[in-house]
Structures are given as C-alpha cells and as structure tokens.
Design goal:
Strand order of the largest sheet: 12-21-18-19-15-14
Structural class: alpha+beta
Number of helices: 10
Distance between the termini: 19 Å
Number of domains: 2
CATH superfamily of the largest domain: DNA methylase specificity domains
Strand content: 15-25%
Number of strands: 22
C-alpha cells in the first residue's frame, strides 16, 4: 500500500476550538458540553448538561458549530480524546475541545477519527502538550501534527473493518446508560421526591419523614484526595495510578493509566481502589466527574482524585454513592464552590462532604440492595467494552501503519 505523510492542517478545511470566554448560561436552550461529557465509547453524553441561549449559539462562527463528519478532540487537561460526529446535534463547547473539519476530498473523515484514536497519535499529542497541572495541546501543534494517509479506497476499507467494534461498544454503552438512568430515577423517587417504600403510612414532621434526618452527605461517607506520587516515579508498567484524565464516562479508563514501581505503593493502603469504589475529580475542567472502579487489580488514586469512603453501616454502598454524586444539582454545587479558585477549579474533601441530604440508613441499604444488580451488570458491560476496545486497538495501529494488507472483493 502506498501511504503519504501529511499534516492535519493539509487535510482539514479548518481546525479551531470552542469559545475562549465563558458562555452565558440559561435554564434551557442549547447544550453546553465539557470533556466530562465524553463517554468511553467516544460519544458525547448530553444528559445533565448546562445550557446556553440559542442566540449565543447562532452567533458563533460556523467552524465552531459541529457538523456531521467533524471530529471533536480534547486538548486541555484530559487531552487526546476524539469524538466523531455521525449525526446532527447542536451544542456548545469551550477551548478545552478542538474541532476539526476534514476535507472529504483529501481524507475520509472516519479514517481521520480512527487515526486520532490510535495510541501512536496520542503519544504525538503527549509529546507536544505543554504545562504541568493543566497540560494543553495548542491548536498550532495540532495543525502541525503529521499522519500517514493511504489512498481513499484503502481508507474506506479500513473504516469498514473497524466499524463493527464501535457498533458493539456503542450498544453496550447504551445499555449502561439505561441501567444508570434506572438507578438514578429510583434514587430521585426515594430520596428527593420521598416516595420510598411505606411513605404512605409514614408521618411527616417539619418536612422530614419520621425516622429520617436532615444532615450532610458527610454523615454517610468521607472523601479523601489521592496520594501525591512524584512525577519522576512514572513508568511504563507496574502498579496502576488513576489520574483525573482516566475518569471517563462514569468509569475508569485503564488503557492509558500511568504506573509506579512496587516500592512506591508501600504503606499507602488507604489509596488502593477496589471494585465498586467510586472516585471523583477534585480539580480542573472536569471537576466533579465520577468514576466506578472496575474489576481490575492494583489501582491507586493519584493526588486530586478523591476516593469515597462510606461508613461501615452502609452495605454495598456503590449505588447510593454513585447516584448521589451523579445528580445535576450536586454537580452544579461543586462547580459553584470550585469557581472561586483563582487558578483552576478546586474542591476539598470537606466541601464534597458538605452537601445536604435527607435520608435514613435502613432505606439507603434497601435502595442499594435493589439496585446493586444494575451495577453488577454495568461492571460486566464495561468488561465487554474493554475487551472490544483491546481487540480494536490491537488491529488499529497495524492498519494505520499499513502492516495489514487490505483486500477488496467483488
């Protein structure tokens, strides 16, 4: 196969990013997405987004309004995540996300997406990213990044070969979303609308059901920031460390985690993660995003990734913790509390424990008992997704390097 080397700017009509100024907020209108809305199936999740007025969206330059065939690419903080636009959707984003508009006469848009999904491309982005706390891939660097491109017919065949993997991943992701929504609906019904089992016979005193109490979530859990691993400790293999960038779509993406040697995890058992733990981002543009810890051994929390420790009286607490911090009202409070930071958004464990709740420990445990099977299935679906991604990612670099011969059949 004949491949040629080109720069991204040479195969794209435009490479821009979102607005550099905070957009005006509204109660409804056009969804406003951040990197935290990108799922581990490389799609945007428009659930619980903020909104901007339509007039603001209409005023944006056309190159900042996504079209079918565009590729959105995270460039700040959790950089290196591509999203391919395969359907019309109006939304707004800021400078943390770049938007590439491929020239279809020069490159097949979905082929470019797979190129940017390839780990080789991520490593190129890693090499040019600047900054420490909030690493950034500049638009200048992005435009100058080089890729290998075969003839269009080969590009189309490669896309055809990879698409079934993405279809299965997306189907699993849709099932996960339905299960999460079912648990969240039940949480709202029981703990917000107070339509818990037996509510009809329960006395209400000053707005509080008998046997319940108003308190803060800190009565039921603690949030502890991760360990301050030193930058010089990172290595290619060893014990895995979860950073904020690895919290993707309510789970942990283990495909690009950093590692440390065994000597660096001695005497820090409180930072080790177990299946079913919930972690939360405490810093940066994606502050407040949460992640369910998968069934993976030897995971530890890095600094500013909060590990949530429920009290002993909570049995199988994952559903309760997950649903509480998944509420849009809680995310709004997190953003409001963190916005006072002069540098970048930050929130403390104490602040994350300060949110009000009205609950009863027995009702919480009953809720968890009923919804735990949802989360068991979610965990299994994530396993399937990881296996599919691994299979796709094994063939992807070989296809992108032209190492696998692509055949055409009549």
């Amino acid at each position: 196969m004949s491949w040629k080397k080109v720069k991204l700017a040479e195969v794209c009509k435009s490479i821009s990013d979102g607005d550099h100024q905070p957009p005006p907020k509204s109660e409804s209108g056009i969804p406003f997405v951040t990197i935290s809305n990108i799922t581990n199936a490389n799609k945007f999740d428009f659930t619980n987004t903020m909104f901007v007025p339509r007039e603001y969206y209409d005023s944006l330059d056309e190159k900042r309004r996504a079209q079918i065939g565009d590729i959105l690419y995270s460039v700040v903080g959790s950089f290196g995540i591509p999203v391919y636009m395969d359907e019309e959707q109006e939304f707004v984003f800021q400078r943390h996300i770049a938007i590439l508009r491929p020239d279809s006469e020069k490159i097949v848009p979905k082929f470019l997406y797979y190129t940017m999904l390839n780990r080789d491309f991520y490593m190129k982005a890693e090499a040019v990213a600047l900054g420490a706390a909030q690493r950034t891939v500049s638009l200048t660097s992005l435009r100058g990044m080089e890729i290998q491109v075969p003839e269009v017919a080969i590009q189309k065949k490669i896309v055809e070969m990879l698409k079934p993997y993405d279809d299965l991943i997306e189907n699993n992701q849709k099932q996960i979303k339905l299960l999460e929504e079912a648990a969240q609906r039940m949480y709202k019904e029981w703990f917000v609308d107070l339509r818990f089992p037996g509510y009809e016979e329960c006395k209400i005193v000053d707005g509080v059901p008998e046997g319940w109490e108003k308190s803060t979530i800190g009565k039921f859990l603690r949030v502890k920031s991760g360990y301050a691993f030193k930058s010089g400790w990172w290595q290619a293999s060893g014990y895995s460390v979860v950073k904020i960038k690895d919290i993707v779509n309510n789970t942990i993406d283990i495909s690009n985690v950093d590692h440390v040697s065994p000597e660096h995890i001695k005497n820090i058992p409180e930072f080790k993660l177990q299946k079913g733990d919930v972690v939360i981002a405490m810093t940066g543009a994606t502050i407040g995003k949460i992640g369910l810890v998968p069934d993976v051994e030897n995971l530890y929390t890095n600094q500013r990734v909060g590990k949530i420790f429920p009290i002993a009286e909570l049995r199988n607490p994952t559903p309760f913790v997950f649903c509480f911090y998944s509420q849009k009202s809680i995310l709004d409070q997190i953003i409001a509390l963190s916005s006072s930071s002069s540098a970048q958004p930050n929130i403390s464990g104490g602040q994350l424990e300060s949110f009000e709740i009205m609950a009863n420990i027995d009702v919480i445990n009953r809720f968890c008992e009923i919804t735990q099977p949802y989360f068991d299935k979610i965990n299994n679906l994530y396993k399937q997704i990881r296996l599919l991604q691994q299979a796709r990612d094994q063939i992807l670099p070989r296809l992108m390097k032209g190492e696998i011969e692509v055949y055409f059949f009549e």
